[in-house]
Design a protein that fits this description.
With 202 residues, this protein is mainly α. It is built from 6 helices and 2 strands, in the order H-H-H-H-E-E-H-H. The chain has a two-stranded antiparallel ribbon with strand order 1-2. A hairpin with a 2-residue loop joins strand 1 and strand 2. The two termini are 15 Å apart.
Length: 202
């Protein structure tokens, strides 16, 4: 049983039955939170791999197209019409594939950014998460394999600064005098009993 529940029980503020019920409920919620966190980590890893694979495939295809251009130019110089025709057909196929890969790259990049944003924003009590995510999405990009703000700031640093400048986008804190949430900035999810108990478990 969590220490805080034990203290409440010993102080006679709650019954043993209530303490067990709260403990069971918290255990269930903690398991859900841990499972969700694990799921996010898996999703992020998959998205990261997909994006990298698409980028690598696109780069490889661009190199192949460049090589084909050189071979076509050489075949034309040597008057090999049949070879030119065959190489140009290959080039056309690869150009179509290149277009599809470019679209896939944009899609996988967008998904990677959305996933990273959702994960980062989940630490804040945002009034309208979808709108805020869409606004921040315009300010970030995948830089050196990581989702960062275009000015070079890390995602966490940039989002923290964003909310410091726009605190009205966060829900009002429940406990104005609490110092638990103050360390993390306005709107950070640490002013609930569950969050405080979770913190004690870390």
């Amino acid at each position: 049983m969590l220490r805080i529940l034990q203290q409440l029980l010993e102080a006679g503020k709650i019954s043993e039955e209530a303490a067990k019920a709260i403990d069971a409920n918290l255990s269930t919620e903690l398991k859900k939170l841990r499972d969700e966190a694990a799921e996010w980590r898996v999703k992020y890893k998959e998205l990261s791999q997909t994006y990298e694979e698409v980028v690598n495939s696109k780069t490889s295809l661009e190199e192949q197209l460049k090589s084909l251009d050189e071979r076509i130019a050489k075949a034309k110089e040597e008057g090999k019409k049949e070879l030119v025709k065959e190489l140009e057909a290959q080039k056309k196929e690869k150009e179509e594939l290149s277009k599809k890969l470019a679209e896939l790259e944009r899609t996988s990049k967008s998904l990677r950014i959305e996933n990273a944003l959702n994960k980062a924003l989940s630490a804040y009590d945002v009034i309208d998460p979808e709108v805020v995510a869409e606004v921040i999405k315009q300010r970030v990009d995948v830089i050196d394999g990581e989702v960062k703000f275009k000015d070079g700031k890390s995602l966490d640093e940039g989002i923290k600064e964003f909310f410091e400048n726009k605190p009205h986008l966060l829900k009002a804190k429940g406990n104005g005098g609490s110092s638990a949430g103050a360390n993390k900035g306005a709107g950070f999810k640490e002013n609930t009993l569950t969050a405080q108990l979770l913190k004690k478990l870390k």
